[in-house]
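Collaborator request, handled under Task 6.
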Amino acid sequence: IFLTNSGNKEITWMMLEAGAETDVVNSVGRTAAQMAAFVGQHDCVTVINNFFPRERLDYYTKPQGLDKEPKLPVKLAGPLHKIITTTNMHPVKIVLLVKENPLLAEVEALQKCYRVLDLICEKCMKQKDMNEVLAMKMHYISCIFQKCITFLKEREDKLDGFIKSLLKGRDKDGFPVYQEKLIRESIRKFPYCEATLLQQLVRSIAPVEI
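Structure tokens returned to the collaborator:
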């Protein structure tokens, strides 16, 4: 908690990778992220909220229960983890991260990845210490992956076409309407209606016209 208050995001990341728990509270019942937010160290808050241990993803690279095959091929774990832990959530950035890795930029690979993301999302919402922020992030990336699949299947320009659609602005003011609709659609499809974060997002966005 003292480290996050200092504002050193690199050390915060190193502590997390070394196994520091993000849900431990101090004497006044605050987590490290809450204390960092309180003193204005928002970079540290971002690092903590975006941290996802690699071992939690590696769980899906091994057959579980009656499964004969793992849900996620080992070769996809690294590229997927890079996207999961990115702090830049712009849809174009996520698509570029997919595009730059040939292992990931295939329909079958993205199908496996988005199904794992959906499982992680479900686990985040159903665990004892619910993590709505991480659940929403996993769902959002899953939605972008599914849209990537659509472009890979249906468009000759594939992911380049997706990026162009996201960046294209409407004639009157240059506003990227497709990008806005994609983000709103991902929020609308979030499967846990009782989530406080979802309700806050809906209240903020619903009254605003595109």
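The cover message to the collaborator said: "The radius of gyration is 18 Å. Residues 54-206 form one domain. Please let us know whether this matches your experimental observations."
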